[in-house]
Amino acid sequence: MDTIDPQIPEETAGEPAAGRRTRGVAGAAGRRAARSGGGPGLSQPFIMRKLGVYEVLDEEGLQLIERNADKILEEIGIEFRDDAEALRLWKDAGADVRGERVHFPVGLCRELLKTAPEVFTQHARNPARSVQIGGKATVFAPVYGPPFVRDLEGVRRYATIEDFRNFVKLTYMAPSLHHSGGTVCEPVDVPVNKRHLDMVYSHMKYSDKPFMGSVTAPERAEDTIEMCKILFGAEFVDQNCVTLNLINANSPMVFDETMLGALKVYARNNQACVVSPFILAGAMSPVTVAGTLTQILAEVLAGASFTQLIRPGAPVLFGTFAASISMQSGAPTFGTPEPSLVSYGAAQLARRLKIPFRTGGSLCGSKVPDAQAAHESAATLNMTLLAGTNFALHSAGWLEGGLVSSYEKFMIDVDQLGMQQRFAEGVDLSETGQALDAIAEVGPGSHYLGCAHTQANFQTAFYRSSLADNNSYEQWLAEGEKRIEDRARVLCQSWLDSYQGPELDPAIDEALLAYIASRKDSMPDAFT
Amino acid sequence: MDTIDPQIPEETAGEPAAGRRTRGVAGAAGRRAARSGGGPGLSQPFIMRKLGVYEVLDEEGLQLIERNADKILEEIGIEFRDDAEALRLWKDAGADVRGERVHFPVGLCRELLKTAPEVFTQHARNPARSVQIGGKATVFAPVYGPPFVRDLEGVRRYATIEDFRNFVKLTYMAPSLHHSGGTVCEPVDVPVNKRHLDMVYSHMKYSDKPFMGSVTAPERAEDTIEMCKILFGAEFVDQNCVTLNLINANSPMVFDETMLGALKVYARNNQACVVSPFILAGAMSPVTVAGTLTQILAEVLAGASFTQLIRPGAPVLFGTFAASISMQSGAPTFGTPEPSLVSYGAAQLARRLKIPFRTGGSLCGSKVPDAQAAHESAATLNMTLLAGTNFALHSAGWLEGGLVSSYEKFMIDVDQLGMQQRFAEGVDLSETGQALDAIAEVGPGSHYLGCAHTQANFQTAFYRSSLADNNSYEQWLAEGEKRIEDRARVLCQSWLDSYQGPELDPAIDEALLAYIASRKDSMPDAFT
């Protein structure tokens, strides 16, 4: 268990990351780099919240849900499908295994979870970008999973590996995204059995932020580990977390072979698993908040504690993906009150388990980055920070229920993430913050625009949005009545045009490319 | 000091209010109506928060700001301009008055404020719509003040009295707006010295929700009181709050003749004043959160305690309008982190003063209801509820920094207010909420769509947005790729088309119209 002391040089807080990289540090290979301190001129690599959390359940409510979850674990049980090893491990650990259904004696999962770290570091190849997972830290990562993009021409189409690289580059440049994420979009132009190699390589090559591994098959998880060993060194990987990996439960109450296979690879290699019930309430869980929370807790207890059966001490997160379905159409809905209540409650349950928590992001169901998209995203994102979320996937670019990675929405979200980061710094109560000298200088009936305190502090006083238009109506008219997505498109293109990647040791780069080539040669292309 | 027990019949929670009015109750005159209980079939008239508040300052920080505010009050002082009566009252109360500058001995304002109620009722002519101001109650009111509208043809133009009536009607029909507000737009087609009569009448005639009075001149405040006496009866008005009135401080540290004149009329008549520093931080206050909070507290202490010099026991609110200015262009900005921190902190200061608190709403700087408008509004609105705000002006329809009342944005905001109201209900921990029977019935690997618990509860399970599109992409395409503002426009027109007003006793209506006619006849038209 270790923590990081974030560095926040004010003067660079508003600049894209590309302008701030320190070539010397970024160019060093992972092994060495990951041990040294942060470099100069780097913005805060993650949020350390100075404010408290918001909670929606009292002690009595929390205990009720915990008791009910224990009842589910013991009486109903959780299925571990098509995985004889998992069943054997659970039997050996003292669970009552009937077929593929595992029934857990009260307290077994909690006891196992005691070996999981409350806080840990996920290392980036640039150590200044390593992130703390857990405690008061909040880490924002981009959207995960969409097969489509809405591109800079406004066309909705299948995503490609070029889109994938673009989102990695944009994430690298965005100061408010602390993590490169994983499947920022699904590059469907690359064979399905090979694309994980290109995806992992893109995160390693085009960014120096921490990233996620492949979970779609155990051998793809193994490939991720092998590539991490090339980048960071085998011994470093075995002793440190260098990938975070999304392990979804098949709610209700099932873990399948694929996810268990990936989980086992990562846990065995001391890498972090985010055990996440993927909940569309009303379909995968009851239509109530408390019922959904109970099921989520049971599923996480089973899945997260399983990582400790594989390797005690392996980092694991309490994950929650919460949405509802429309009871009229069956469509998923986002940013509504009930999933917010679920996530706030789940954060509380995670803190009591003393493992880091993942939820939220900038979720929405809208097809375009309009006010619906923004309201739904804002409702999710405000909750994400106030709940005390440690790792927030889908924080930028998510559109259309996660079917689409949107360039425009990505830029709009990144701006909002910056506001969350500023908010989390709380209230400055220093003498400068108190500003009594300014109030005395200005006095009744005057204004503060020119006073000494304003002159000295206005540069860093207020968060400066990169996209909001606050000009006069007349000026806005003269500039063509642009909407925020129009401005986002222009800014996005300018970021992509000005992208300069972090250096990567040519020997490591070569070794990675050789590994990928050899792995690709070993398999025929598969597209389904 | 009294409170109201809100009634929430589930079956009507999603319907516009017009379908739910009870003619008998609504038709009764104010005097009688204001004393009886709520009628059947009425939705909750305001929010009673079952969840806690979010706070950004600790005890030490609060005391620091309070000490600094006391220092401002004593050493710098607050100006009460062009009002000899105010200066005399302050002198008699023990303040040190030098010219128009009033210096307050430490503790004087707090001592005076002890006679102000912590919680009170603002009565509506339909008692089922009376609202609690203070405590755990949150009351949403529409936008206040814009001279322009963005109409249903998408045209931005000066507002008219017809627009005014439309917004009163829409507010009447919106279940999540608990209050009719005040200047929902500025009807510039009516002479400036007469329009307050038409505005107050519109609130009385086209709605039966509580409303705000005119504050633009003392005689217009007197007209408001006279019209209230016709509607509610003179004795009832003297003993109860029937109007809420917006008294802005001229920050920094000035109260002017106009606002003091209106304040005195309302306080003398036992009506509520919302003493609100109108702050664009960086111009009217220091560029820091703590400095802004300090000045706000000083201004509110001076202005709010002044109401108690006029009439001890008169209801008064701690108001805060917080925005920042762009230090580059000087333009106001909304929905950014710093004003949120200011408002959260101000709510805490208000609770310590034991008077109700007003802030927030759905503020934005955008010219159109796009994602900028939504993000800025959401940031403001989420804070509004979580801060524990008691009265939230500008909750629906605010666009372009308050220059425009937007029909489309109004409908989008109303939908979001409904979500806030649902969120504030918190987590149902009843047996139905726990849903253990559902989890047992469904079991691992199945789904909840058809289970008995879902069938019994799905109707009320999730907040149902009136505007979000969650259909498939293909269906959305087929329906013409509509954005949320397109759907809002259609819904708005259908509300206006189906509006049915609450009945108003014809004798009262006639008396109101006669009063208005006589007052209008007594003055020449003025347009500036």
Automatic annotation (TrEMBL), chains A, B:
EC number, as in UniProt: 2.1.1.-
Keyword Heme part of the UniProt annotation: no
InterPro entries in the record: MttB-like_sf, MTTB_MeTrfase
Organism phylogeny: Bacteria, Pseudomonadati, Pseudomonadota, Alphaproteobacteria, Hyphomicrobiales
UniProt keywords, alphabetically: Methyltransferase, Transferase
BP-aspect Gene Ontology terms: methanogenesis; methylation
Molecular functions (GO terms): methyltransferase activity
Protein name as it appears in the record: Methyltransferase
A UniProt-annotated Pfam family: MTTB
Protein family according to the UniProt entry: Belongs to the trimethylamine methyltransferase family.
Region annotation Disordered: where it falls in the sequence: 1-39
UniProt cross-references to Gene3D superfamilies, sorted A to Z: Trimethylamine methyltransferase-like
